[in-house]
Amino acid sequence: SGINAEYGDSTAYIVTTIALLGGVLAFYYFYIYNNPDEEEEEREAEEDEEENYTSIEPRDFTLEELRQFDGTDGKPVCIAVNFVVYDATKGKSFYGPGGPYAMLAGRDGSRALAKMSLDASDVKDGWDDLSDLTPFQRDSLSEWEMKFQTRYSELGKLIKSRESEEKTEE
Questions:
Q1: pLDDT of 104-144, one tens digit each?
Q2: What is the largest CA-CA distance in the chain?
């Protein structure tokens, strides 16, 4: 009975704290991270954009070639994620001009996605080997890559240059 008097309140405190943390995490997952309303809006936007869609022939892209596919002037939207180029035109409301992720259109979005950043400095103009990403950032990039694989068509690889591609084929 003396033990319950000494530790009973702290046990209840710990259990209550764990239960509250569990509730907060469940709320975050179901209502913020996995927001069904956002997915519905995205689906509706994709359906609208599919009507005016021109497909791109699958091939490999250099950074310079990729830049022309930024969604401006009715052009398709392509984004590189972890050295793979995706046709993200059906997500143009997100990645095209005026969209929240427009800075990734026609670019290698890997670093920005890995860092969960909308900072323009995380979208490099030159080749980015991503070798300095932390394990957490690599996991984040893998999650984004899976998202792109399930939603968008893979067009080819992001290559450093046409010369390096020719050398590897010989």
A1: 999 999 999 999 999 989 999 999 999 999 999 999 999 99
A2: 81
**Gap between the Cα atoms of 68 and 78, Å rounded:** 9
- In the predicted structure, residue 40 carries a pLDDT above the cut 90: no
Q: How far apart are CA 168 and CA 109, in angstroms?
A: 25
The end-to-end CA distance of the chain, in Å, is 81
Question: Cα–Cα distance between 23 and 21 in angstroms, integer?
Answer: 5
The Cα–Cα gap between 152 and 88 comes to 6
Strand 78-81 versus strand 107-108 pairing type: parallel
Q: Contact at 8 Å (CB) between 90 and 65?
A: no
The answer to whether the CB of 115 falls within 8 A of the CB of 96 is no
